[in-house]
Write a structure and sequence with these properties.
This protein has about 150 residues and is an alpha+beta fold. It has one domain. About 25% of the residues lie in helices and about 45% in strands. Strands 1, 2, 3, 4, 5, 6, 7 and 8 form an 8-stranded antiparallel β-sheet that branches.
């Protein structure tokens, strides 16, 4: 009888551990993740961040439907994030690098970063961030509040 109780307890503890990993394992921490920053054509505001791999799988028709008046820039995300549908929400103190001269599109347009200086506040979709550095072709941003 005690052996059966012990097996049941082990099985129950294992189930709880596995369930908590599945239910609460939404936040991801990464050394580096390749991303696409979706920028509004008119305002030059970053509206979404998406995983590069997911973006590449999306058909052109769907991209035009979802992001008709946007441009896309390659970038890197260093730190924690979670996914909200297909959009990345960076965690606190996550660094995002926008390659302002590497647009992911056949159209040759550049992200207007000349007027952005270190210390400037910046929005990455719904996440507040601060500019850390602005070198030619590279804008480095650190998130403050998710």
């Amino acid at each position: 009888m005690q052996l059966l109780d012990l097996r049941l307890k082990i099985l129950l503890v294992t189930a709880i551990v596995l369930c908590s990993g599945i239910c609460f394992g939404q936040e991801r921490i990464t050394k580096e993740t390749k991303v696409i920053l979706v920028v509004d054509n008119k305002s030059d505001v970053v509206e979404h961040i998406v995983l590069l791999a997911n973006f590449q799988k999306t058909e052109e028709k769907q991209l035009m439907k979802n992001y008709g008046h946007h441009k896309f820039f390659l970038g890197l995300l260093k730190g924690s994030y979670h996914l909200n549908k297909n959009t990345i929400v960076p965690g606190k103190n996550t660094t995002v690098v926008i390659y302002t001269d590497k647009q992911f599109s056949p159209i040759e347009e550049f992200f207007q970063s000349e007027n952005i200086s270190p210390g400037d506040e910046f929005n990455l979709g719904e996440t507040k961030a601060k500019v850390i550095a602005n070198k030619k072709g590279e804008l480095v941003i650190k998130t403050q509040k998710p």
